[in-house]
Amino acid sequence: MDYLRIQGPTKLSGTVTISGAKNAALPLITLTLLAHNKVTLTNTPEVADIKTLLKLLENLGATSTLNNHVLELDTSTVNHTMANYDIVKTMRASILVLGPLLARFGHCEVSLPGGCAIGQRPIDLHLKALEQMGAEITIHAGYVNAVAPKGLQGAHIIFDKITVTGTANIVMAAALAHGKTVLVNCAKEPEVVQLCEILRDSGVDITGIGSSELTIIGTGGKTLEMVDFEIIPDRIEAGTYLCAGAITNSTITLEKVRPDHLDAVTAKLEQMGCTIDIDGTNMTIHPAAELKHVELITQEYPAFPTDMQAQFLALATLAKGTSIIEERLFENRFMHVSELQRLGADIRLNGHTATVIGESPLFGADVMATDLRASSALVLAAMAAEGTTNVHRIYHLDRGYENLEQKLRALGAKIERLSE
Ligand code: UD1
What we know:
The chain is of the alpha/beta class and 420 residues long. The chain has helices at 22-31, 48-60, 85-88, 98-105, 124-132, 164-175, 190-201, 235-247, 263-271, 309-316, 335-342, 372-384, 395-400, 404-410; strands at residues 2-8, 14-17, 38-42, 63-67, 70-74, 82-83, 107-111, 136-140, 143-147, 156-158, 180-184, 205-207, 213-217, 229-230, 252-255, 275-279, 282-286, 295-297, 322-326, 346-350, 353-357, 366-368, 387-392, 414-419.
């Protein structure tokens, strides 16, 4: 198993190129299950989660090549409808095949994803919506068995909670359904918006894109002639590098970003005293003269993203004053707190709220990554800490950050990948 050894404190400088968004690429890859043609996706991030999903699609009968961020996918040959446990258990987002497979084939069998480190993460809202569209769903031996012998039917669906992959799954199902589907209380994340835009550009009648209410007129089972497209930049990777600049007191520039996708993150960094210059798709962060404490609440887009909570928690340990960070989306997303404490952070947890007493001197230690974004928070803290930190279990990082250590090393970080 690999781990990262980081020598701190470190100063960064220079420019880093942001990769395509993993969370956009995942639903967009499963979207190609609705197509009858070969589709080319550019700016595809070459991270473990994408490779896992491609393997799942290959098991279903698809063919794909991924070279230099160009992904060519042909799902016209898909002849299986079972997503088995071995793959789904390693990546919850595999559930994104459920809507497209059911819509295209009228039946599918997808392993239940189960819990994960950051909480229960049920899929009840995905299933309830599909049932409203006429699917008969049974759970047997750990699998969701879904059938829609007459095809899925348009429906009026109100999501009880805003769900990102839930919205994506049902949008894809509705695209091939019979008649009109209205989805209320949808996720508005840029990744969902891009999914809807590609569907629209591929001929599906879909309105309300970017709002919380989407209306989709299904093709009645007809597969799509899908357009080629470029995946949007990863706003969470970008936010993580902005935090890297802030935590190491450095000026760095990010290239190939969508600054408008980062408004909530930028606003918090500015409140903490950092300055951010935007020039087209470039963003430059200048560190704060004195890092100020912050109050933030994670919520659905366009509010502050839960996927940036851990990184800001790391940053808050160095700020002047007491920061309050409230996690509203996932019940168990503070696993990084005890690891940050090992580095010397003074953080008190009370339910969904972390109180961070700032200006803690951080010292290198052995720490364990617990989930994807928690891992990046540990890397950030390690770059600010005095001495050597070893971050173990970095397979979490490899799931979603492309070439993290190469990118940080190019910015001047002392970071190396070693084997246990
Ligand atoms: C996606 C992102 C993840 C991000 C999260 C929230 C992908 C691949 N992953 O995850 O990085 O942290 O959005 O922005 O895009 N819920 C239910 N029932 C459901 C579905 C969700 O109760 O059927 C709850 C979840 O437990 C959670 C909340 O709704 O509390 C939001 O979850 P959701 O938006 O679905 O997260 P994901 O799509 O899994």
